[in-house]
Amino acid sequence: MSAVATRVRDRRVASVSVLGSAALFGTAGTARALLLPSAPAPGVAAARLLVGGIGFIAYVGRNADGRRALARLWRRPIVWGMGLTVAAYQVFFFLSMARAGVAVGTLASLSFTPFMAGLLAWALKEGAPGLVWAISTVLAVGGLALLTVGVGDQRDLVGILFGVCAGASYGFYTVIGVRLARSGEHPTTILAASISIAGLVLLPVFVMSGDWWMSWSGLALILWLGLATTTLAYALFGVGLAVLQPGHIATITLAEPVFATLLGVLVLGETLTALGWLGCVVIIVALGILGFSERRDPVSR
């Protein structure tokens, strides 16, 4: 296989992996609604990162090389910055959904992320995201707006502002993760180091959130959120860090609300209007455009 064909294959695998992570991220709201809808948002976010960080440490630290790499990254201030932004994203995201509803909170959180990631990457000379990214992102955000109208959740300005803060945090995290991966650090180790720091930072939040998790449903919730929607999902997310543009990664994760909405309709019995279904289609088209662009030679682009 030629070098060009290998690069194209790697980008396609990375795109599918990030899409898989978005699918797992999209199960968080449904899991909470099914298992423990009364769980406090900050406590859920803290528990998710604590369990996810432990899962990552166990996976990466299973050999001496992984443990040395983790120790090296934990000494880097930029990784602590990533950990703080991961913690901020989780808290702001759950607060946004609690105040503005799942659809509006997700829209506010995720629609701002690709723009932030693309502009930050450009400013830090990680490469301009390009015209295809701009077109697909605008389409995807438009689809998210239609999806939000179709679901019809409540509007709350403070909740929307929480979502914007979440999007800015996620954009910063993605760009710095890409930069570290391209400097030679393994993406999984980067994620293990930063998410474990985020869990440590939010440990007091978890302790003060009460005993909501001390039940079978509470334990099932934090195990699913921690191991499936954090450890596994971010491991898939990490596949994209080494080969995709930060803006492209952030745009692909806009598929998360599509998966979340479909689960709400199919599992929770929620309704979706014609505008909502149209929004899902528009987002899928936008991701298709971005995915098709990944089939082209990344050097020629």
Describe it.
This protein is mainly alpha-helical and 301 residues long. The chain is 80% helix and 0% strand. The two termini are 20 Å apart. Mean pLDDT is 80; it is low at 297-301.
**Could you name the ranges where pLDDT drops below 50 across 5 or more consecutive residues?**
297-301
Number of domains: 1
Structural class: mainly alpha
Beta-strand residue fraction? under 5%
Oligomer: single chain
* Total beta strand runs: 0
Q: Helix fraction? A: over 70%
Largest sheet: none
The whole-angstrom Rg is 18 Å
Order of helices and strands: HHHHHHHHHHHHHH
Which term fits the overall shape?
globular
Helix count, DSSP H or I runs of 4 or more residues: 14
Distance between the termini: 20 Å
What number is the mean pLDDT? 80
SSE map:
Blueprint: H1 3-25, H2 28-35, H3 41-60, H4 64-74, H5 77-100, H6 102-123, H7 131-151, H8 157-182, H9 187-201, H10 203-208, H11 216-241, H12 246-252, H13 256-266, H14 274-293
Keywords:
301 residues, mainly alpha, globular
Short description:
With 301 residues, this protein is an all-alpha fold. The protein is built from 14 helices and no strands. Helix 5 packs antiparallel against helix 6 (102-123) and helix 5 crosses helix 9.
